[in-house]
Amino acid sequence: MKKLFGLFYKDLFLGNRLFACLAGSVVLFLLGFFFPWMGEIPVLVFWLLMIVIFIDLLMLYRNREGVFARRMAPERLSNSDDNELGIYIENRYPFNISVGIIDEIPFQFQQRDIWFKTVLKPRERKQISYTLRPTRRGEYEFGDIRVFVKSPLGLISRRYNFNQAEVLPVYPSFLQMRKYELMAISNRLTDIGIKKIRRIGHSLEFEQVKNYVAGDDYRTINWKATARRGDLMVNSYTDEKSQHVYCIIDKSRAMKMPFEGLSLLDYAINASLVLSNVALLKEDKAGLITVSEKIGAVVPADSKYTQLNKILEVLYKEKTRYLETNMEALYTTVRRVIKQRSLVVFFTNYESMPALQRQLPFLKRIARFHLLLVVFFENTELKTLSEEPATDVEGIYIKTIAEKFAYDKKLMVKELAAHGIQSILSTPQNLTVNTINRYLEIKARQKI
């Protein structure tokens, strides 16, 4: 009995309307001292209020399970994307209720405003949707759902606690990956900034002989088929397939720098996942290598159906380290793992020319055997500082230093090009689009 009373007291909350009614009752008692003609009116009002409170308690507590709530969440969340979640709520009372809902979301979001208010009719069911945007990979622990119910009287509220504790993993941006996948399948990549590349010549993989249409390359006319059919016929060629595409992700301290809530490593991971998916859709083989002061994960290139899930599981666990990249170990691993000429996309970051010079000898060795594409990041904060007008001596100094760093980034691109190494200097938010553009350009120009 004591336990039941404790639970009753614990889940009982007094409403603002009740406090207003009690304040009004107190005012009536005070007025009764000055106006004797009021007589027993304050006492009658007080006991009437007590009866209404008792009725309100009876309405809320006569049902053991007056409401039901459940969180509607996916099996996993996508990093840096808006993930949709929902709360299913059901009214089991025979009257209208006002409901306040608190969903205890993980502390990583640092949000305390997940509070929803709604009104439910008798036996009505409703689903409330909201979105969460995680900025770190890992496990996110959700807590309980707490529902506060008020009857039409609205004097008190009863709390229901629903044990919905669960842990959801946050994976690299698979929602972004699916978006690009659908665009690639429907040939609508240009809608999101992917450029069409004009082909120069054609690959060696013959596909079919077809009728000539305006715009076809006249150099592909098949004169023998034309003579037999009496109509112009042209040879159709397709992209070369089964080429190897490796993404190498630098996990050193250079990739720890944050941008809009995500680290540069997270941007590189998201771009690698999308690039691997597009490569598999183009019937190439995708692989992955991660490196910091030592070699991390190695996923040999393959085109199997399970390859993308294998890459996704590996990227989910990767974290930045705090030491320099071991380029010697990377070169040894590339020579050991990658047996044929491949496209090697190296995601890293350089903030100064000496940082590039330290790695350049190893990059040149890798470029001797493979088509190397170095992807590094443009510092948008420095770019903003360099474009702002200077108003004093300190401003001139800051602007000059920012322009120097921005100019060094452009020198790095030229330095890499001078040694036959392709590069992409990209802002973090445009990294995925720029990387896919370059991959499609390389395939169209048959450079692998």
TrEMBL record:
**Keywords, alphabetical:** Membrane, Transmembrane, Transmembrane helix
Keyword Ion transport appears in the UniProt entry: no
Q: Which domain of life is it from?
A: Bacteria
DUF58 domain: residues covered:
208-350
In the UniProt record, does the keyword Thylakoid occur?
no
Signal peptide span: none
| InterPro entries given in the database record | DUF58
Please give the start and end residues of each transmembrane region.
Answer: 12-35, 41-61
Q: Which Pfam families match?
A: DUF58 (PF01882)
Name used for this protein in its record:
DUF58 domain-containing protein
